[in-house]
Amino acid sequence: MLQDCVRSSGEYMYLEIGSHLGGTIQPHFIDPACKLIYSIDKRPESQPDERGRSCHYTDNSTERMLSNLSHAFPSIDKYKIVNFDNDASDLDPGEIIEKPTLCFIDGEHTNQAVFADFKFCLQVSHANAIIAFHDTCYIFKGIKTIKEYLSSHSIQFRGFMVGGSVYVILLNEAINNYSDKIEPLAINESEYFRNAGKKLRKVRFKSGYPRLYRFLQMGKRILKSPTKR
Ligand SMILES: C[S@@+](CC[C@H](N)C(=O)[O-])C[C@H]1O[C@@H](n2cnc3c(N)ncnc32)[C@H](O)[C@@H]1O
Description:
two-stranded antiparallel sheet, Rossmann fold, seven-stranded mixed sheet, 229 residues, 8 helices, alpha/beta
């Protein structure tokens, strides 16, 4: 849907932070309306996460991503993708010459990183861009900070929690241009954030105190099981 929005006005540029194997780059790679893709991925050996654990991505490299894409779509020019093996905060915004109208943030899933990634996207993207986030179930506090930031800087926006743990921010004229397409997909944001918070607390407790968690779960099962006479 987000792709439909930006391609409806003709050519578009796409920027993704956290490209990994190129899964979410694919639809833009094969789309003739997408003229250029910026792929930003620091490709660290492991990355922290709001769940309180580290995520490992083995053999994570730009070469592997490009080879996957070339293999799947041999007729498409891989030079359509401009790659940066960096953290977005270490990149010179001047490197992003063609302003993307769609940015997708799926890098390090911490509130701090998502805020930094968002500020980079805001700086380099088109004024009327769409900026979307994956795995909102982990970084919903980062989204709240982003919304406060936009309000405090008097930047016009609308935010929508949609399916697949994706959060969408429409900036400036994108609000009028695309709200009617995105709004029908939206779910209740406060309820989603509240439930995500509950689940995250449970997961954090489980990874911080695994033995205590198992002990408490065992207690629960015993209390639930019918008493034998
Ligand atoms: C969940 S995966 C992304 C999946 C990808 N969008 C796909 O569809 O295949 C997260 C990616 O974020 C990258 N990453 C981790 N820390 C990062 C950072 N600080 N900046 C940019 N990317 C980062 C990892 O290397 C990893 O490839």
